[in-house]
Design brief:
59% of the residues lie in helices and 14% in strands. It is α+β, with helices and mostly antiparallel strands and 343 residues long. It has a domain at 193-287: Roll (Chitinase A, domain 3), CATH 3.10.50. It holds the Pfam family SurA_N_3. One of its GO terms (molecular function) is peptidyl-prolyl cis-trans isomerase activity.
Length: 343
């Protein structure tokens, strides 16, 4: 088994990692408008060793195919090429951001790296020295390469975020547009008939009768509910069930029917149910219909602004980023399947 593992490891290192033993970490695998992407950066992002370790723990047969056959090696090479393509796009994002005057604060990036590192150390109960040792033992670099990867990730994320803010800043919605959306999409704002209810639940008819006597004697329904109700949904809220829509399943059909034919302010009960005895007070009622525009206007504004922002972002990608990428000078030196060099 050890020989098989060593053979697979050598095969991966020589073919998938494009001869890391002969190509140093500083070897350039691609250039993007004169900016180099090194083997070290690609290996850090692809993290093939960790990927193989995870695959081996899940499916040993698939792992053997990957490390012991040329087809498997080519598959991993294709994966590594896709990672390189993503890195190229990230470099392009950073470059176009710089052309747009987007600047990412290095201090903010360092703070984000520190926060993320501390979160990782706390999660696993490690020190930085522990993490450095673990990364080296697992073949995943060291603490410095870990921090470098975080710096790059956060730099790209912040660049994208700042570009999006700039591109979508013109996304605005007028009241007329909001009202038009409301009128054209009334079904989104349909509301079922509902009643606002207070409820008391007890385990015997005797307790229910006593609770009802207290209410009829002038005590507040909510106070009695707080004192005696065992209802898990409403006891902590002084019996308040809030708005209950017809057909919600929260109340049995028989009791629900009584509630919706009774007027606002009515007290119903004691009513026997499968969990004991219940008393209801109808605080308010709402007919079937539609939510008022004024009640949903903020949600409409938010929805339409997000929609416009997405359209502006997609337009920017199609009309700015893709042409920038197509006009860029991109040279790729990573070997493709069959040993051919990509250009």
């Amino acid at each position: 088994m050890r020989k098989v593992f060593m053979f697979g490891l050598i095969l991966i290192l020589s073919l998938v990692a494009i001869g890391q033993e002969t190509q140093p970490a500083t070897a350039v695998v691609a250039e993007v408008n004169g900016v180099a992407i090194t083997m070290e950066e690609l290996n850090r992002e692809a993290n093939v060793d960790r990927l193989l370790s995870q695959i081996q723990s899940v499916d040993a047969t698939f792992y053997d195919v990957l490390v012991n056959t040329s087809e498997g090696v080519n598959l991993l090479l294709r994966y590594k090429r896709e990672v390189l393509n993503n890195l190229i796009d990230q470099v392009l994002i950073k470059q176009i951001g710089e052309k747009m005057g987007v600047t990412v604060s290095k201090d903010n990036i360092e703070n984000m790296v520190s926060t993320e590192l501390n979160k990782t150390l706390t999660q696993y109960g490690m020190t930085e020295s522990d993490l450095d040792w673990y990364l080296k033992q697992a073949g995943l670099g060291d603490i410095n390469s870990f921090k470098d990867r975080l710096r790059w990730i956060f730099t790209v994320q912040q660049t994208v975020s700042l570009i999006q803010q700039q591109v979508t800043s013109s996304a605005t919605v007028t009241e007329e547009e909001a009202r038009q959306f409301y009128e054209q999409n009334r079904e989104y704002f349909a509301v079922e008939e509902a009643a606002k209810l207070l409820r008391i639940t007890v385990d015997s008819k005797e307790k229910a009768d006593k609770a009802l006597e207290r209410i009829r004697a002038g005590e507040e329904f909510s106070q009695v509910a707080s004192d005696v109700s065992t209802d898990p949904l409403s006891k902590g809220k002084a019996g308040d069930l809030g708005w209950v829509e017809r057909g919600s399943g929260l109340i049995s059909e028989e009791i629900e029917e009584k509630i919706f034919v009774s007027p606002k302010g009515a007290i119903l009960g004691p009513l026997q149910t499968s969990v004991g005895w219940e008393i209801y007070r109808i605080i308010d009622k709402r007919p079937k219909g539609y939510e008022n525009f004024e009640d949903v206007v903020n949600d409409i504004y938010q929805h339409l602004i997000q929609q416009k922002a997405q359209q502006l972002w997609q337009t920017w990608i199609n009309e700015q980023f893709i042409p920038f990428k197509n006009s860029s000078v991109i040279n790729i030196y990573l070997l493709s399947e069959g040993g051919q060099e990509d250009q």
